[in-house]
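Crash report, auto-generated. Payload:
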Amino acid sequence: MLSTDLRNNVLVVRVSERRIDASRAPAFKDEITKCIEAGQNQIVLDLSGVEFIDSSGLGALVSCLKRLGPRGSLAVAGATGAVSRLFTLTRMDKVFTLHPNVDSAVDQLSA
Amino acid sequence: MKIRHTLLILTAFLGIALLVAVSIQIRAELLDYQTAQRLAASNAVREQLLLGTEALANERSQTFVALLDPGRRIGRPGSLEEARRRVDTFLGAAERELKGTAGFISSTDAGLAALARIREDIGGLRRQADTSLASDRPQRGGEFAPRWFQEATRLIGDLQSSRLTLLQQERPLEPTLRAEANLRTQAGILSESIARNQALMSRALMEPGTVEGLEFDAISRNAGRAGLAWELIDGQLGSPLSPSVTAAIAATREDYTSTFAPLQQSLLNSLLSKVPIGIDAAQWYDATDHSLRNIAHLQQELLGSSRNRLEATLRRARLSVLQWSGLLLLGIAAVIGSVLVVRRRVVQPLEALSQTMLRLADNDLSTPLPRLMRADEIGEMNDALRVFKANAIQRERAQNEKQVLHARLRETYRQLRKDLEAAAVIQGAMLPPAAAMGNVSYRGLYRPSSLIAGDTYNVLRRNDGGIGFFQVDVAGHGAAAALVSVACHHTLSQAILTRTQGMRLEEIAAQINNDWPEDLPYFTMILGEIHPRTHQASIVQAGHPSPVVIRSDGLVEMLGEGGFPIGMFPAAAYERLDFEFAPHDRLLIYSDGLVEAEDKDGEQFSEERLRRIVGENATDSTRALLDRLDVAVRTWRGSETLDDDLSVLMLERLPERIPVDAVH
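Recovered output after restart:
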């Protein structure tokens, strides 16, 4: 479901699923939580392949963000379409730092 | 055909084939035995006849010389009676033997009749001889003697032909036996020739002057016949003969050629040339007796040898019959034993296994297995069947357990569903039915994705106449979301009803958000109010889809940019959106279940499609518009089911009524 890649000490997590909905949200949350517990606090979530996130998926994202706490940062890259609209509608664009692509997100986090 | 029949028929067939083969052999052996028996019987009769013939020849000689010589100078006193007794004994024995063979030798009756006649004739002859011997006239004996000799010779010939008839009927095939039979006949001829000359020469020697030519001829002929007999005997010497027989022949021949034949020849020559003769009749008679005894000894050897051979053959044949009969009995026992073993060791266990298998196949697992304590293939089959049965029993038990579990699950599910249905009724009852309240009318559309939903809405009138309303969509769906939605319903309803003067809408939202327990799921909502005295309305949009305003003239607007959901971040701030809401304006608020409903290809119903439908049908009544939306979503989905809860609430400001007191 997720593939990870460490770039400049930033963990890039690519979501290979097209949807993050109620059936996938718990697993998604567990995997990200594992990364955080392993000591990663600079995380870029690559959502360029995701087409839809429902309320459970959004809950999981927020839960990861809370788990990361103020020391770390969770940036979102490549959100488009329905995902982007959801972020706007729920004001998550104010909570997560949104980037058009992974590179700019990594650049900012590693700066 | 069952395997039982095949095996038993095969075994029986093999057994019968074996028995038939042995029976045929036994029949052949029995025939051999009968042949040997016949040969032995025939030989026994012929033996007695031969001895009887010899004895009769001896009696003939003794009687002949007695008739010629009333003074009894020749022969031993009393020997005539002994000779007659021997004749009677042998012929009697021959008769008994012949009677004893009645079962297996043909023409026994003819032989017996011939023998009886011969004995009768002998009796008659003897009586005549006795009469002559007892006569006072010495010449009378001499007159009767030639006739006696002739008749006795004829009877001897009859006995010999009887014997030869028997020999013809039962001719032995074995070379030694044949040679011995031939030798006996030839020795008989020899003996007869010598015996005749014993008598004839004795008479010639008694009265040498009276001998006639015919008598010489007879003596010469007999001598010639004796020589011929010797040639025939010599002809048989190439045959396989026993050493004792060969020795007896050699001894007889030695006596004949060195003693008897020269004596006979010299006597014949002396008689013919009428020169004085060195020996008298008595001496000749004794010398002849010696030769005859030699021949009799030879005959005894031959008879003994034949008898022994035949008895040995008979014994062998009997033993053979017994052996084959024993084999037959063994064969029968083997066949019966085989059938029994095949039945007991193969057929019965197989049938028992087959019956058990059929019953097990019929699912009769209580069927006991056959008790076979065996290590062979049938034992292995039984073991396999035992494992099969154990597995079947285990399978059946597992199946039963599964069925019990299944029934329990079904019951639990039924109970749960009953609970959920009851909960759904309660949840449905919490939603306000379509109604008008003050100058606001409203109507909802409510479609849970399962029995109960995380969506809820309400419309309330406060004491100051304002109309408060909300729509909530709890994150997730199902029972947990439904329970939380009930809590939301209560909290928001109370917040609307107990709102203090001057407390703004966004402050209510912020307070609920702040108070919301962190471990409950968050929710999105539209919280709003329609002001009773102005043509204004306000909403707070907390992560909920943007509502649609349908103006009385048919124009359609989307309201709001979004906002934080409730219960996600405690410190979140909320904004109030005020907008004009004139009479016949309508507000349509909906949960994301409407715009995110997917068709079978995964495409969402979308805000754009909602807006278009609403725009195209803006003049429809609220009820007609909601029905149209409902149908549109069902058509879009292509089914009656939903992935997420769907709810829509429409509110309309009614035209202002002229207050009653204003009329005056």
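Post-recovery validation: The interface with chain A takes residues 473-477, 521-522, 524, 543-546, 561-565, 568-569, 572, 592, 596, 604, 644 of chain B (CB under 8 Å).
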